[in-house]
Amino acid sequence: MLTQAPRGTKDILPEEAVKWVFLENKFREICRRFSYREIRTPVFEHTELFRRGVGETTDIVEKEMYTFQDKSGRSITLKPEGTAPVARAYIEHKLYNQPLPVKLFYITPGFRYERPQAGRLREFHQFGVEAFGSQNPLLDAEVMALAMQFLKEIGLEDVVLHINSIGCKLCRQGYRKALKDFLVESRQKLCETCSSRLDRNPLRILDCKNHECIKVLEGAPIVLDYLCDECKSHFEMVKNALSLINIDYMVNSRIVRGLDYYTKTVFEIISDDLGAQSTVCGGGRYDDLIEECGGPPTPAAGFGMGIERLAAILEKNNLVELPEETADVFIATMKDEYLNTALKLLYDFREKGIAAETDYLKRSLKAQMKYADKILARFVLIIGEEEMNSGVLTVKDLTNGKQYKVDCKKIIDYISNRIRKGCGEYE
Ligand code: ATP
Ligand code: MG
Q1: Among 101, 261, 368, 421, which has the minimal tally of Cβ within 10 Å of its Cβ?
Q2: CA 144, CA 350: separation in Å to the nearest integer?
Q3: CA distance 268 to 180
Q4: Arithmetic mean of pLDDT, 15-23
Q5: Which secondary structure element, helix H or strand E, spans residue 32, and what is its range?
Q6: Which residue's C-alpha comes closest to atom 19 of ligand 1?
Q7: Taking 50 as the threshold, does the pLDDT of residue 423 lie above it?
Q8: Please, are residues 308 and 292 in contact by the beta-carbon 8 Å criterion?
Q9: How confident is residue 209, by pLDDT bands cut at 50, 70 and 90?
Q10: Architecture of the domain whose range is 329-421
Q11: Exposed/middle/buried for 109, CB within 10 Å: 0-12, 13-18, 19+?
């Protein structure tokens, strides 16, 4: 037990961490281009926030939350998703007094007690954005465009944007009733979860992956047929905006999302590369959440995107060629008495922005050379008796095996010039 991480969690080792940094940098950069600013919220919140915000009848609240009492008896929950905490922060810090829309992004862990499998963990990570304070359908389109632009720029073009509208509180009532009436007759054919959902949250049945449930749903009423005029025209405008900015999409009336706070537009971005856990991104509009959580009426739209699923697709398709991390220069010493000189040089290099490394295990010169090779050092500097006496250092270029003599006073400039010029010869 001591040597095994808890079920459903995963270490990100250095080779993988560079991919995550690539993804994070790219996401930050795209958010900057779309004028979204970063927000960081705590890893845990009061349980009540998620009960209220995510919804009592959702899978997350019913069975997936990591909830515990802290030492003074408060009920605390590790955040299972990113939107409710950001909405809470928006209200707490009265961000609605800022020029609207307030556009925020985040990179966060999330915790859900689910059955771990490929693409499904108990601690996972998300990129997300939220735009508060505008009902404009252009904002629904913008959050989708941001997600699609990001996926395109990390080389992931084989994804499809599925969109739907689930209407507002009012028109959804009519649809709920129609769907329930349709399903009631086949109640015994539904899976256990869906059978109980039928009374509490029938829309969620559309999201079920059980084959029997999918079959029962054939010929079920479609939410788009029940939209009120306002929701209908909103959806039309979202589609027009997407077409105008050249974002391909397909309308999929089965997309309802797993969280209760959505209104009008909902969407998922689905990849064929992921097997069962194929949704990389899910989001939509949630015009009632802020008010539901105690803030002023505030329309909003956003998404959450699973980083582990992105990393898995990149891995599978070899999509990112990341340079291996290397030391620019390795300083090898022939005798212990040269260590002080080596140490001074080591820190001079580092001070000047050059990645420098030396030996900490008292290896022989031969073993130091081998080690330098293993850590993919570009150059090795050898400090021996001759070098100490003459003040001229031996530099070996490990990319071609050639050796050079360089005056120790010029060594920093020499190495930094060579690195900047790439692998070419030094004139
Ligand atoms: P799913 O249908 O796959 O369970 P969801 O509807 O529960 O997804 P959201 O709450 O919308 O997911 O979260 C947005 C994204 O976060 C998902 O599309 C997915 O990429 C990722 N995600 C959600 N739950 C997990 C998890 N347990 N492990 C890994 N990634 C996850
Ligand atoms: Mg889920």
Answers
A1: 421
A2: 43
A3: 24
A4: 92
A5: helix 14-33
A6: 306
A7: no
A8: no
A9: confident
A10: 3-Layer(aba) Sandwich (3.40)
A11: middle
- Average model confidence (pLDDT) across the chain: 93
* pLDDT of the residue at 8: 98
User: CATH homologous superfamily of domain 14-168+228-317?
Assistant: Bira Bifunctional Protein; Domain 2 (3.30.930.10)
Instruction: Report which secondary-structure segment, H or E, holds 165.
Output: strand 159-165
Distance linking the first and last C-alpha atoms of the chain: 58
- Measure CA 255 to chain center: 21
Region of 318 please: left (phi>0), alpha (psi -120 to 50) or beta.
Answer: left
Beta bridge partners of 268: 162, 282
Query: What is residue 375's three-state secondary structure?
Result: coil
Q: Which two tokens stand for residue 44?
A: 């845990």
Q: Please tell me the predicted confidence (pLDDT) of residue 427.
A: 40
pLDDT tens-place string over residues 162-202: 999 999 989 999 999 999 999 999 999 999 989 988 988 89
pLDDT at 102 over 70: yes
pLDDT-based confidence at residue 46 (cuts at 50, 70, 90): very high
Relative to the CA of 207, which ligand 1 atom is closest?
2
**Residue 309 in contact with ligand 1 by CB distance below 6 A:** yes
Residue whose CB lies within 8 A of the most ligand 1 atoms, among 106, 268, 277, 286, for a mutation test: 277
Cβ–ligand 1 contact at 108 (below 6 Å): no
Q: What number of CA atoms fall less than 13 Å from residue 157's CA on the CB side?
A: 3
Q: At 168, which helix (H) or strand (E)?
A: none
Residue 34 has pLDDT above 90, yes or no: yes
Tally Cβ neighbours within 10 Å of residue 397.
Answer: 16
**Of 249, 318, 306, which Cα lies nearest the Cα of 27?**
306
